[in-house]
Amino acid sequence: MSRAIKVSFGVLLALLLGLRLYAQDPSQHFISAKSGMVNYVEGKPLVFTSDNEAGSKVSARDQLKSGDRLQTQENDRVEVLLNPGSYLRVAANTEIHILQTAFDDMHFRITRGVAILESAAFDKKVHSIKMSTPAGDLKILASGLYRFEVSPDRPVEVLVYSGKAKWLKDQHEVATLKSGKRYDLDITGNGLQNAKLGKQSMDDLDTWSKRRAESLVAMNDRLSPSLLDYSYFDYGYRSHGMWLYNPFFQMFTFLPFSYGFLSPYGFAYNYYYPVYTYGGYARGAGGASGSSPTQSGTGKASGSRSGKSGNTSPAAHRPATTSSPSPRVSAGRSDGGSPGGRGTGRQR
C-alpha cells in the first residue's frame, strides 16, 4: 500500500471517529433544564413510581420525576443534581418525595432521615428550591450549604452552614434562618430554637458530602476541551453554567461560564468562556473560579487557585489539578466503601 493511500485512510478513519464522538455529545454529555438526575449511588436505594409501586433499583443517570419517591436503606447514599452547581445528597434510612423538578420550581419533601443541599450557583431570580418537612417548608434564598434532619417525635433540625433560608408554615413566613446556626423547628410552627454551629456539628455524612464536592471539582479540571467548546456555543449562550458529563469518571460536574464560583466547602471550579476575535468567536479561555478572568486570547486565568467561601464548614482548600476522585468511585457508584465512613445522621 502506497504512503499516500495510508495517509488518506488514516485521515478518513480520524474523521469518522470524530464524527461519531461529536454525534454522541448531545445525548451523553448534557442535561435538559430540570433537576432530578441521579449522579452517584452507594448501596441499593429504591425509587417508587406510580407505575411501579413495588420499587426499582436506583442507578446513576436515572432521571427522577415529579411524583417519584426515593428511599434509602442502611448502607445507601444518593447524590441528585439540582440546578447546575447545586446538589442534593441523601443519607441512609431516608425518604425523599420528588414534587417538582423544573429549575424555577424545584420542590422536594423529606419525611424521614437526613439530606444535605450544597449550592454553588443558586440565583433566586431564575431558580427556586423548596424542601418540605413535617414542620413546614424551607425555601432556599442563597447559595450555601444546608442540612435537613427529620426524626420521629423530634423537632425538625436544620443546619445552615452557609447561606440563608426562609421557614414557611401554611404559606406564611415564620422566620429567616441565617448562616452559621442550627435550628430546631417545632412541627406546630410556633417554636424555634437556634444555636451557633461548631466543628462538633460535623459527622460522617458531612465528611462524605465534602469529599463528594472535592471529587466533583477535580472532575471539572479534567473535562475534554472539545466538549467545552461544544457546550458553550450550543447549550450555554444565555446561561451562567451547566452540567457537563465527564466520560472518564462517568458522572456529571458543574461547568461555570464565568469566574467566581466556589463550592460552599471552598473548592474553586474552573470556568470557561469564549474569546471573541476578529471575525467571530475563537476557542474559549478559562481558569480557576476563585481568580480573575484573563484577557482575550489567553489561556488559564492567573492568580490563586484557592478561595474562601466565608462559611462555617471545615477548612476549605482548592484540590490540586492532578488530584482525582477516590478509586472507589466508578460509573457513578461506589463499590461498597465510602469516604468518611457510613453515617445516617448525627450521633446523639
Envelope shape: globular
Helix content: 10-25%
Spans of at least 5 consecutive residues with low confidence: 13-28, 232-238, 276-285, 290-348
Question: Strand fraction band?
Answer: 35-45%
Largest sheet: 16 strands, mixed
Helix-strand category: alpha+beta
Helical stretch tally: 3
Compute the CA-based radius of gyration.
21 Å
Q: CATH topology of the largest domain, which one?
A: Jelly Rolls
Strand element count: 22
CATH class type of the largest domain: Mainly Beta
Secondary structure elements and their pairing?
Blueprint: H1 3-29, E1 37-42, E2 46-49, E3 52-57, E4 69-71, E5 77-81, E6 86-90, E7 95-100, E8 106-119, E9 129-133, E10 136-140, E11 144-150, E12 156-162, E13 164-169, E14 172-178, E15 181-185, E16 192-196, H2 204-220, H3 225-235, E17 241-246, E18 251-256, E19 270-277, E20 280-288, E21 329-330, E22 333-334
Parallel strand pairs: 8-9
Antiparallel strand pairs: 1-5, 2-3, 2-4, 4-7, 5-6, 6-8, 7-8, 8-11, 9-10, 10-13, 11-12, 12-15, 13-14, 15-16, 17-18, 19-20, 21-22
